[in-house]
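Reopening closed ticket. The problem is back. First fold of the pair:
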Amino acid sequence: MCDRSLLVSAPLESRIARVIQRDHISRTEVESRRSTPVFTEKKKKQLADDVIINDDHQLVIPQVLALHQRYLALAAEQESGIRVKNQENSQMPKIQDVLTHIHKNQCISFSALCI
């Protein structure tokens, strides 16, 4: 069981374009894959504890780093039983450190629409 769930969300058109480019398939093939989604994007957002928006308007790395700080505080809180305040003056971690920490210390379910 996980403590938190994280959804990485992107606009439908961006997801479709990425799949077309990645899999070298037509738009029709992509759309046929997503004809019966298990959960709508709206439902996924309702179920997720945290959401990272991956679009052309918001930077992803600052969102990841902010969640990393939050997850560190939550992990410390769980270990000590004491609520940890946000550490504003702490040095920003490297992205590899963030991913390593999340992988080793947090049980996070990632939900992305794989169309």
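Second fold of the pair, where the issue appears:
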Amino acid sequence: MRPAFTIVELMVAIVVLTVGVLALAATAGLVAAHVGDGGRLTNSAHAARSVLDSLRTLPCERAVSGAGLPRGVPVTWTVARDSLTVSIEVIVGLTLRRGNRRDTHHAVIACAGS
């Protein structure tokens, strides 16, 4: 007689395999949502970087506070000056799966002649 699996062993294996496949399917949606949130976070960081780079190219006296929608992301920035530097605070708002989020980015730029 050849060794073989019994019908009970086959049924248990099928149930275990089914539970594993269902667990993978359930987490696939969660993973997709996290990937989407990561894309939105990356897009907002690029928008903040774009604003900072634009302000960095201006002479210190021309850098002013403002707001805009670079890359479709709401961004506000505040500029504060002293005699040697310009301090910039960029606030980026975005909506994630878990709710709204606001990220703040800071930069200090040395003025010419300092």
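Update: turned out to be a display glitch only; the data is intact. Helices lie at 7-56. The longest strand covers residues 85-96. Please close again.
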